[in-house]
Specification:
The protein folds into two domains: 2-50; 81-128, no CATH class. Helices cover 45% and strands 6% of the residues. The chain is mainly α.
Length: 130
């Protein structure tokens, strides 16, 4: 959530490097993530209520608050997951995309294709560094 704190709470910053367009695009990210968390948490609570042999424990390793509000220019963005997976020769039936915090991309690959992903992605990195 720290990545989008500036969009939701721009008034928290003395120095601010993001545009109004960026704020408009991402100002709902924290609320969206919290609504997903609330839905999942509610499901867990209902499960535990129906199954008293279980105990629900919640632990958190970090808090969220304002960080710097400057544009990150060193991150690689994957904008077309289909094209990327095709370039790695992973067929459409062998992977599924899962929700993550933008701009990250979550992908689950069927077991027999994992080595293909490793091999192709490592070969690409090695060629780039030669």
């Amino acid at each position: 959530m720290h990545r989008y704190w500036a969009a939701a709470f721009p008034e928290d910053y003395e120095k601010f490097g993001y545009s109004d367009d960026w704020i408009a695009k991402y100002n709902s990210e924290i609320n969206f993530a919290m609504s997903k968390c609330d839905r999942l948490f509610s499901r867990l609570v209902k499960f535990v209520e129906r199954n008293p042999e279980y105990t629900l424990w919640i632990a958190s390793s970090m808090g969220q608050n304002a960080t710097t509000a400057w544009v990150v220019k060193t991150q690689l963005y994957l904008t077309n997951i289909d094209k990327f997976m095709s370039a790695l020769e992973i067929p459409n039936h062998a992977w599924t995309q899962h929700p993550t915090m933008f701009p990250e991309v979550g992908v689950v690959i069927q077991g027999e294709w994992i080595e293909q992903l490793r091999k192709k992605s490592c070969n690409s990195i090695l060629k780039e560094n030669q």
